Amino acid sequence: MKIVYIVPGFGGTFYCGNCLRDSALAASLRAAGHEAILLPVYLPLVMNGEVVPGGPPVFYGAVSIYLKQVIPALRRMPSWLHSLLDSQPLLKLAARKSGSTRAHGLEGLTESMLLGEEGRQAGELAELVKYLKEQVKPDVVHLSNALLLGMAPMIRREAGVPVVCSLQDEDVWIDAMDPAARDDMWRLMARQAAQTDALVAVSRWFAGEMKTKMAIPGNKLHTVPIGVNTSRYKPFTPATEKRVIGYLSRLCEENGLAILVDAFILLKKEPRFADLSLRITGGSTGDDRKFIRAQVEKLRENGQEEAVTFMPEFGFPGLTGFFSGLSLLSVPVLKGEAFGLYLLEAMASGIPVVQPELGAFPEIIEITGGGKTYRPNDASSLAAAISGLLDQPGELEALSRSARQGVADHFDAAIVTSKLLNVYREVTGNVTSKP
Hints:
Layout: E1 2-8, H1 17-31, E2 35-41, E3 46-47, E4 50-51, H2 62-70, H3 79-85, H4 88-96, H5 107-115, H6 122-136, E5 140-143, H7 152-159, E6 163-167, H8 170-175, H9 179-193, E7 198-201, H10 204-213, E8 221-223, E9 244-248, H11 257-268, E10 277-281, H12 289-301, E11 308-311, H13 316-323, E12 328-329, H14 341-348, E13 353-356, H15 361-368, E14 371-374, H16 379-390, H17 393-410, H18 413-428
Helix pairs in contact: 1-18, 5-9, 6-7, 11-16, 14-17
């Protein structure tokens, strides 16, 4: 089976769970004998800090579609200028700039993208569909998230193939917009979702959220979690002497880094945690610089700057070094999350997790048995949950064993890929085909 994943490139400046999910799924499908192609939109595909060489072209180049949206005169720009704006150097530069991943201010562009053929990027959509129809000829097209649903009707009609769409954290993007635009966005997404063959949520919790928000009929909605290749992760025993708390995600306010920093400062006031340190990685965008400086200054004012390490490498080769020596990991996302790939990466490495009782976190921790939840999501509650585990090394080690086994039993890439292939077979009508 030939599957095309249409995925937003992100430039590689921060840990992007959705992007890593798509890359891992494609790799797992190839390992199962299928042809899986990642087709980037907006920005280039980046792995381990480098643009993936020899891949498909970038459609809907971020620079050109933004300029066309805000400067009407550029909607008829000559082809040479269009090519220049979509060149790899300019797109890589755009990925590093402030606002490249910020929803507020992009309401008009988001709406236009969701309108598809009726939007201002109709030309870009026609180019993408032509490429699919004439050069790739897939069996299934899989959209990375519901913000790309404007593509679905034309792809189904012109390319004549089923369209599947993943659902993961679209609410974070929509809820960050001007309140006057939110209801319109949800209505548009619901309208375009009706033009797909299947929608795939990454957790039961998020499936329920999106079923309500997008009025998705039950027979079209599936739940297929994120998976990881567990054999790639080196197993560790949590550190119980020189204890270390880890954070793996984009360094931003929304992901709760400030809560973790405040909890760490509270813990360090206790003499029994004199050995405790904090290790942080996950990258950032230009929008996050002020926030990060504020956290560093807070640590300095409390005399804890030397107890914290910021690690620049967050790609897979560097994660082994990051997880080595950790006692536990916590990413206290303010409003919870649809999944959280970092949880699987930590638990597959034998590192227990401590997460707020929000979003899909309780669901994942219950399935794996590899961590603890707490509430409310504030620094004192997190500090109490962490101290409870650090004071019980035997429980930490038991959670470590459960974490690794739970991920292997429920979230290994081969298991997840098999579930997704069942969805593809259903929408293509090829229910008897084998990998």
